[in-house]
Amino acid sequence: MQKSFVIVLIAALVGAFIFFQFVNAAASVAFIAGIVTATLIFTFLPAGSANASNEPYVGPTMTLYVGNLPYRVHEGEVKELFGEYGPVNSVRLVRDRKTGRRKGFGFVEMSEAGAQKAMGKLNDYIFQERTLKVREAKSQESDPAESAN
Question: Hey, what's the signal peptide range on this chain (predicted)?
């Protein structure tokens, strides 16, 4: 079941109880009044921050390299950790091509200001019993030139 449906159902039941106790309406009428009240409340209340977090950040971004990640960590956990410092556009955890297992590092794309804060706060931060290494990611174009020298 979806979370919003459960919330509306609970609000409808509470509304029905209130109408039944204080208005002395029949139970079915009270339940319908509770549903209408809950629908009106959720229709006119502004949407929460859940919608805002799903929209990608459109300002200046920076990609961070995150090393020494726990092998069992998921993208959502990393996004939540870095999300405390600014909007996160994407999290990519690198996997081994043959086995499909995570390699223990990844990349986080987030707002530039948030990335600067995250680098300062999360480098050498202990996360799930591992000490993270957070750096600005190098571009893929610069890698072959550096390895040739």
Answer: none
Taking 50 as the threshold, does the pLDDT of residue 52 lie above it? no
| Token code pair at residue 69 | 């990640």
Helix (H) or strand (E) holding 31: helix 27-44
Interatomic CA distance for residues 25 and 19, integer angstroms:
7
Domain range enclosing 39: 3-45
Same domain, 95 and 128: yes
Q: What is the mean pLDDT of residues 25-33?
A: 71
What tokens were used for 2? 């979806």
11 with 79, same domain?
Answer: no
Predicted TM-score (pTM) of this structure: 0.60
pLDDT of 142: 57
Q: How far apart are CA 16 and CA 80, in angstroms?
A: 37
Place of tokens 């459960």: 6
The span from the CA of 89 to the CA of 16, in Å, is 42
